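Protocol step 4 of 6: structure prediction from sequence.
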Amino acid sequence: MPSSSGISRRNVLQSIGIGVAAAVTGVSLSACSTASSGDSLSNDGKKLAPWPAYIPQPAAAKPDLAPNDKGVQPGYLTYPQDLKQSVAEKPGNGEKITVWTITWGAPPKPKEKHKLWQALNKALGVDLDLLVVPAMESNQKFASLVAGGELPDIIAVSANLPNPTELIAAKCQDLTEFVSGDAIKDYPNLAAIPTYAWKASPRIAGRIYRIPVERPRIGHSLNANMERLKEAGIWVPEIGGLAADDFTKGLRQITGRKKWGMGVAGLGAFGFNSIMPMFGAANQWSLKDGEFITSQAGDEYKAGLEQLVKWQKAGVFRADPLSHDATLGTDFQTGITATVSRANADYISNAVAIKDGFTLETVRPLKPSNGATPGHWFSSGADYQTVLKKASKDRVKLMLRVLDFLAAPFGTKEYELINYGVEGTHFERADDGSPVQNEFALSGDSKDTLGVGFMCCPQQVMFLPAAVPNGSEAVKRRHAFQTEIAEVGIADPSVGLLSKTMLAKTNELMLLREDTLKAIVMGRKPLSAWDDMVKEWHAKGGRKAADEFAKAYEAAQA
C-alpha cells in the first residue's frame, strides 16, 4: 500500500527509553513489505502455518491503564519498583553474531567506547558485531549488502526495501518450526508480541520467516495545545463533536502575530493521514465483495482534500507550508503552531519536550461537512521485521534467544538495561525510582544509536518518567484518546497480504499521489486534477495491485 513521503525522520526518544517512534509522515508500509515474484512464493494454494500463540509475559509489570485487543496501549503512571528477570539464563556462551540494522539517529561509537554496547554483549553472553546504517540510506546499503554475497546472521528488514521476498526465501531461515503455534513458548518474550504484529508480517509460501518489530495500531492524529484551542472555543473532546467549519473559524482566530493554527510541512503532505479518515475515507483500500478499491477514488478522500484546500486558503497553515520539515515538531512544542499531525509515539516525545509549557492533548475527529462518519486510520502494527540467515538448528535457537532477550517487556531488568542503560553509567534514579538518563547516555551512548530496537522489541507502552511535569496526567489523556479512537478505527485490509506490483511501484505511486495533493492544496492545480491522478495511478500499477491483493485475500480466507 502507498504511504506518505516515504519513511522519513523519526524521533529518537533517548530520554525516555522507549525506542524510535513510528514514521512521522504516514501509514505503515509493512503491508507492502514483501511480495511474491512467482506463484512458488505466494500464499495462494499453500497450507498456512499457524501464527505464534499469544502468551502474556508474567514478568511484565501490570499496567495502571489496561490495553485492549483493538489497539489501545498499556499505560503506566509510575515506574515499576520490583523489576523482574524475564530471561532465566544468558542467551549465549561467547558466540559472535553479525547484525545488519538501522538507526534514525547518529551512528554508534566504536564498540570499545560504547558502554551500553558492551553491557548488552555481557548480558547476552554474545559478541554482537553490529553494522548500523542510517535509515535514509538503508535501501542503497541493503542493495550493496546483498551484492556482497555473504549475509549477516540477523538482518532488520525495513518495510520499504525493494522486493526482498526472493532473498528471504533463498537465503533466510524458515522459522516456522521454531515459532509457529505453541513452539513460540520456548521464547516467552517473543510469545508476548501481539498477534496483530505477526499478521502484519506476511508469510512466504505459507511459512513464517520473520519476527515482527511491534508498533502501536493507533495511527496519526492531531496533537494540540489545549489552552490555545480552549481560548478559541474549539476544544471539544468528543468524536464528531465539533464541525469542521467551526474548527476552521477557531484556527483563524488563533492564527496571527507569527503564530498559526496548524503546523504542516512537505513531510507528510499536510498531515493528510490525520485528516482523510475524519471524512470517512477508507484506510488505503476498501474491500467490497472481495474487490480492493483504492480509497483515493472515493468521495470521502476528495472531501478531506477539499478541506486541506480550505485551510490553506484560510491562512491557518504555517506560512510557506512545504518548507518546514526540519522544524515541524519544534514549531509545535514551542507554541508557534497550535496543532500538528503526528505519529502515535510522537505524543510521548512532545510531552517530554513541552514539559509544563502547555497542556498536550489530541484533537478528536471533527464532524465532517460531507456527513460521513468520522474515523481514524489504524497502523499495521509492525513497521519492521527481522530475518535470520540460514543456519544450524542450534545457531537459529541462539539467535532467537537473543531476539527474545531484546523483546523483554516493560517492568523487567532486561528492558531497563536495553532502554536506559546501566545505573551509575547511563542513568540515576529519581525519587520515584524511575531512571533519569544523564548526558553521557543522551549524547549517544544509547540503544537508538545501536539500532537494536529495529532487531526486536516488546509491545510498546505509554509511560513518562517523574522528570516530566504532570507526566502521569499526559499518559491518562492519551490513553483516554486511544480508548475512544479505537472504537472508530479503520483497518487497512491489505495488511499482511502480498502484491508484487504494489511493492515494485510503491514509491512511484506515492510520489504521484502526494505531488498532486500538494499541487492542489497550494493552488497550482484545480481540485478536478485529483480524478486525473487516480486514473493515472490505476494505469501505472494501482489497478494491477488491487487484483493481486484480491487474489491474496481470497487465498488467506481458504
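Step 5 (inspection) to follow. Residues 1-38 have pLDDT under 50 and may be disordered.
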